[in-house]
Design goal:
globular; 65 residues; sequence-specific DNA binding; mainly alpha; LysR_HTH_N; WH_DNA-bd_sf; LysR-type_TF_proteobact-type; DNA-binding transcription factor activity
Length: 65
Amino acid sequence: MKKTEQYDEPLPMLPNDPPLRAVRAFEAIARLGGISAAANELMISPSAVSHQLKTLEAFLQMPLT
């Protein structure tokens, strides 16, 4: 039986991975129903949440709204 290796450090993001902050912002928008609520939960400005949404849309090359 092969022993599973354990890693102390997270795996690095690959070039094809979406920006994690943008994914978190999108998840909060979807779960909470809007940019203002997401901004409040994430403790950032609504414009920063909007910017993260645009970043994810650019990464995916498709609109998410």
